[in-house]
Amino acid sequence: MKLLTLPSVVQRNVFELLGFKQLLIISFCSKRTRYLIQSLQKYRWIDIKFVKYSFEEEDKIYVNVRSENINEGFILSPNTLEQLVITPMDVFGMGSEIPICLHPIYYGGRYIYDKEQTQIVVQGIHDYLYQFFGSSIDYEVESIEDQPPANSKKHQ
Amino acid sequence: MTSPASSSEVKYLIESSEGNTFDVSGAALRQSNTFNAMFLNIGADGPIPFTDYNEATLKKVFEYCEHSVNEENYSGPKHQDDLSKWDLNFFNEMDQKMFIDVINASNFLDIERLTSYCCERIARMLRGKNTQEMIKVITLPTAEELEAKQKVEEKKAAAAKKVAEKAAETAEKTETLEELPVQQLVQTTRNKLTRKYLSFSNE
Predict the structure, then answer these.
(1) Which of A50, A76, B24, B104 could disulfide-link A61, Cβ–Cβ 3.0 to 4.6 Å?
(2) pLDDT of residue B27 exceeding 80
(3) Any domain includes A149
(4) How many Cβ contacts (< 8 angstroms) between chains A and B?
């Protein structure tokens, strides 16, 4: 299926049938798919109010994208004894050297990351989303700790 | 036979990229907004040329239109699970190349129902896939393939450079060879003239 060779009307219709999480995964495939999604689906992000990073207990991080019509997001879970092995994937444009991958069962909705590398992972995700949605959106950080994570200072 | 009449009995001749013509009913053709905009009111003298698409593709597209003539009016995208058995067979018996051709033709002819079902089918292929699987579905080259492709291109470029260098060397040699006989000819002529002059002056 050569998606990129299809007419842009068809591409737009296909993207419209997919949710934010699936579009995010397609955008990881190549620069071209990312630009394509950004240009064809821009109108969907226009009313996004904020992207919130919530640092919760047990090193779980919730990334929530909110608008009047959209309330989607994904969860970053640290590697556990059951999910010890992380086969790094090239997600959020971070390259395969950063220890983060899609959850083998909950594709799109959940990622597994190495909690020793939280700073790099969250910074990488934020940089990607910042580029993806643009600077007109509020990027918020919510933490159960007294102090927000060090990497939350950039792009606020 | 071609006619602007709105009767469903009216048949229109369609011309494919191969130059072949075949009949399609007016009722089926009217599902195409492109046809409606271009020919419905003014009619067509002779076959309607849809020559960007081959006969097999056009026949497939109009097979769908003929089938859905009696269905209720199109009311937006329908979920894949709601498709009839006929619809599912229609899509399943197509190979990927034909599927792409049908999408392109359906998009050009602006047949909303068929285009939206095709899009839903593609979306279904993409749902629940990770990045690597997604790359396979949309046939993007992977990092390894890109690297291999780059290596092949580098090798080709190096080979082309070698060929160019050889060609330049050969050209240089040829130029020298071409120059030599001229010089020799000049020298020989000069010698002959000198000899003639000498013999003439001796006489």
Answers:
(1) A76
(2) yes
(3) no
(4) 80
Contact A30 B104 (CB under 8 A): no
Nearest residue in B to A22, CA atom: B127
How many angstroms away from the CA of B106 is the closest CA of chain A?
Answer: 10
Q: Do B138 and A25 touch (CB under 8 A)?
A: no
Lowest mean pLDDT among A50-54, A129-133, B1-5, B166-170: B1-5
User: Nearest CA of chain B to the CA of A95: how many Å?
Assistant: 11
The candidate with the shortest Cα–Cα distance to A2, out of B68, B181, B99, is B99
What's the mean per-residue pLDDT of chain B?
80
CB contact under 8 A, A13 and B100: no
Q: Which helix (H) or strand (E) holds A72?
A: strand A71-78
Structural domain includes residue A119? yes
**A152 located within any domain:** no
User: Which candidate from B131, B139, B143 shows the least CB-CB separation from A25?
Assistant: B131
Tokens 């089938």 belong to residue: B67
- What CA–CA distance (Å, rounded) separates B62 from B163? 52
- DSSP class per residue in B96-131: HHHHHHHHHHHHHHT-HHHHHHHHHHHHHHHTT--H
Q: Which structural domain, as residue segments, surrounds residue A74?
A: 2-143
Please report how the helices A8-16 and A31-40 are oriented relative to each other, as an axis angle in degrees rounded to 10. 80
Domains: count for chain A = 1
Q: Is-above-0.80 flag for pTM?
A: no
Q: Are B103 and B118 in contact (CB under 8 A)?
A: yes
Residue A135 corresponds to which tokens in the numbers above?
């600077």
CA Rg value for chain A:
16
Superfamily of chain region B11-138: Potassium Channel Kv1.1; Chain A (3.30.710.10)
* pLDDT tens sequence across B111-158: 998 999 899 989 988 888 887 788 888 876 666 666 787 888 888 888
